[in-house]
Amino acid sequence: MLARFTAGLFNIVEWRKAQKKLRLLFGALNINYMRFRELAEYFDKIQQVQSRLKMTGIIAEMLQKTIAGEIELAIYLSQGRLGPGYLGLEAGLGEKLVEESIARASGFLRKEINEKYKELGDLGLVAEFVSSKKKQQSLYREELSVKKVFENFEKIAKASGAKSQDIKMKMMAELLNSATPLEARFIARIPIGNMRLGIGDPTIMDALAIIHSKEFFQKEKKEVEEIKKSLKEKKEEKRKEELERKIKFRVRELVEEKYNIFPDLGKIARMLKEKGLEGLKEVTISIGIPIRPTLAERLSSAEEIVEKIGKCLVEQKYDGFRLQLHKDKEKIIIFSRQSENVTHMFPELIEAAKKQLRARQVVVEGEALAFNEATKEYFPFQVTIQRKRKYEIQEKAKEFPLKLFLFDIMLLENENQMLLPLEQRRKTLAKILKEGETIALTNSIITDDPKKIDEFFEQSVEQGLEGIIAKDLKAKYIAGARKFAWIKLKRSYKGELNDSVDVTIIGYYKGRGKRAQFGLGGLLTAVYNSKKDAFESIAKIGTGMSEQNLVELEKMLAKTKTEKKPARVESELEPDYWVEPKYVLEVRADEITKSPIHTAGKANGDGFALRFPRMVSFRADKKPEQSTTTEEIIKMFRQQKHVQIEGEKVEQMA
Ligand code: AMP
Questions:
Q1: Burial 18-41 (b: 16+ CB within 10 A, else e)
Q2: Closest residue (by CA) to atom 9 of ligand 1?
Q3: Which residues form the catalytic set?
Q4: Rounded to the nearest whole angstrom, what is the distance from the C-alpha of residue 322 to the centroid of ligand 1?
């Protein structure tokens, strides 16, 4: 057999036969072997069909052809990935390098490749075209297996260091050299992450449901009987179709349930391939694997909320990043709402989690937002979003440290908490959280009184927050779905403040964190009440100032510090330092709101405030008495156009 095999190497027909035999042998031994050409042919078919149903059918057939160990590779590659989405593995081979690899493998000039790309608009088609018109033929063409292609891409992804670009291109060219034109089309698309097949996770789940429906029918007799009883169709043929549909739906549900706590369809498919539906039981929540987040429903009033879920936990709704934090002893992993690993972006949260989470293993969830320690105010989302960055992470972390408000716990010391009622989870969460500056529980109340909910809502909005989220105390953690476990009540109106406002500085707050070096962290500002000749507080401002602004402001303000509140100043807030009203700033804000903490136009306990104020410029040309007046603010508030969010109703307030 060995002699025949060796002789066959010199004869391409024999070689192919030998490969076929090997394949059978490998298959029997469970050694991975599927030709990439087969996969590429399936991809081509998928690309050509227009009906989703047909596409799912083809994917199911394709996945059935694979063996365990290969199925996950086929799934990842079909989505232009090198692993599950949450790992975010990338080949690190951009369009330019792919162009270069195509040139190297084909003998075409880089310029020619680039021109073809401009003409065709898809590097996959370029690779296919040049592969069919190769100027140089490689001496040895290896028949590519799915595993070989995948492994080369893994190596491409891992290559690092000075020569990494060259290594990446070499490996890419090696694949393209061995590829048929059709294979080349898809190989060139993989590193770009765009397979142009439109296969999403739901499509893969549907395909897995098709594959395992028969097994469900054969094994789950009791449940199948139940389904049969629920059938509505009368005619035999139609009943059969309905039964098939319902079984497929049920299997899909089983797969999705697991996907929601373990979003790696490659691994799930492999478990299914190896052990059938039984294999799903082994899929559990695990440290380091993101759980898909619960989603909130929407209702428009506190009354409706109470009617729907009765006594509930009402939490403030923060406008920041939703983060899922996994702690395994000293190791911390942070996932975003989209299940991306964002650990490196939040060094202060990693440190805080190590100190404040009293558990060896835990998975918790919360919302993080930038918080101005100087003014004790939440920063608007525009500031928090600056923390989502690749560079200057440490600097920004010092400038805008985040505060994380925890609202749920899913795993504790290897025990799944998701099925326990929220009331219990919340208690556990409180127990494991040590007091500290960075991580806190969400502010909340428990009530079944719509009035209390409304008050809490107003209070939250005044603090610059988005609104509230009411949560069903009895509900389990519903991964990946929206099922009235959470109900949000947001500000239904979004103001438009077209005009900027000129305000006078009446005091300032010491800088903390990175701003300590400037001696200034925020400003207390006022508008001018011309009738009373008084400066009435309207906003604390902590954004919009450059470092240079901060230095200049501190220098100027230090010279006008006063020991006590100046006589013409009316303010219930106490800054670290009062200053003589002298300097005017132009500020922009999202809108004017009512607020009990500011004195501008105060009547019946409420004054006016600027929501999310940010500095635009110094107004050296203006005197404090030329700032915007209280009367103007009242007028602006009245004229403020209120546009209901999410395109419902547009209303003009008188
Ligand atoms: P929305 O994005 O408007 O559907 O509202 C839901 C989002 O609000 C969640 O995904 C979180 O990112 C965020 N959020 C803010 N505060 C909370 C809270 N206390 N509980 C749950 N989610 C919150």
A1: bbeeeeeebeeeeebbbbbbbbbe
A2: 322
A3: 317
A4: 7
- In which residue are the tokens 């039984």 written? 278
**Cβ of 369 less than 6 Å from ligand 1:** no
643 vs 650: CA distance, rounded Å: 5
User: pTM (2 decimals)?
Assistant: 0.74
Burial class (CB in 10 A: 0-12, 13-18, 19+), 417: buried
3-state secondary structure of 591: strand
- Render the burial of 226-247: b for 16+ CB within 10 Å, e for the rest: ebeeeeeeeeeeeeeebbeebb
Structure tokens at 455: 């008050």
What is the residue-averaged pLDDT of the chain?
88
Q: Is the CB of 324 under 6 A from ligand 1?
A: no
Is 18 in contact with 33 (CB distance < 8 Å)?
A: no
CA atoms within 13 A on the CB side of 197: 32
| Ligand 1 centroid from CA 365, angstroms | 11
207 lines ligand 1 (CB under 6 A): no
296 lines ligand 1 (CB under 6 A): yes
Q: How close is the Cα of 317 to the center of ligand 1, in Å?
A: 6
pLDDT in tens, 274-311: 999 999 999 999 999 999 999 888 777 899 999 999 99
